[in-house]
Write a structure and sequence with these properties.
The protein is mainly α. Helix content is about 65%, strand content about 0%. It contains 9 helices and no strands. The longest helix is centred in the C-terminal third of the chain and has 41 residues.
Length: about 325
Amino acid sequence: MDMEMGECEKEWPRTWHERAIWALELELSMRGAGFSWTSADVRHMRKTWRPSIKDRLRSMMLQVAPVLLVSWGMIRSIHVHYLARQGQQGLFDDLPYTIQTLLTAALGAFLMAAFSLGHSAFAIVMAPLRPHPLSYFPPLYSMRVWEIRSVREFWSYGWHRLFSRLFLVYGVWPGEWLERKLMGKREGEQADVGKVIGAFLSSGFVHSFAGNTVGPGGWRTSSGEAWFFAENGIAVVMEEVVRQYTTRRRRREKKKSQWEGEDAKGEDEQGEGLDRWYDGMVGRIWWVTVLLYTGRNFARGWVLAGLVKEIAFA
């Protein structure tokens, strides 16, 4: 579709008109229209339910817009009071650690809200085309932030899956193939480590390549995205190792208590009935800490590339 293709004679968009064309192309390509190599299905579930226009408008005004404005205000305040005073661009690592963390959190919230706002806006615009496939915009996020209890849950349910097909083809499948080759596994055997690492490495490459393409700083400013996703992939593997170890240990303790005649509920292979009251709290502290600590790599690159300055309209 010609209307989806935005052309720019320069290396990256410079005017508001060029930026609008690029934004339109990005949104439609992530939606899966017109790009055969990434026809993404962003659903986290098999349900075909879609929010009504009224629900989307309510969410945009009462949930998304406040988060977007507050996070933008934090970004602008940090830029004006810290980064702008350090020079033309400022250095992320010269900021106090608490300010680095606040800027990282604000950028993450801003991105999440901006994605949601754009997705819902396009869904409303395309709604009159029903039942044409172009009108199909399922919910972008399927889990509330406060419900997330692990890094894996965040990336699986708390974040969007707009590039899922791309990462599946260029990350998950090659990662599974490589693990089976290295570990001598048969075709069809689970290769979860390769799957996770492959997905996050491909994501790191895509984001770094995009940052290098549209940002003025080159690879020096875009490598942080690669480190961010690579570290999150390692965190997902680590937490799964801990989860399996904890489940086996609690299962042995439960069987021991049953042998001693104590009352205990049964559990299945997934470890149901083995949860502790503090699991949710520990999980939430864990994933927030991982995202904020590793996200500093992302924020550092955005500061060096001047993107924080642009967001702050400074």
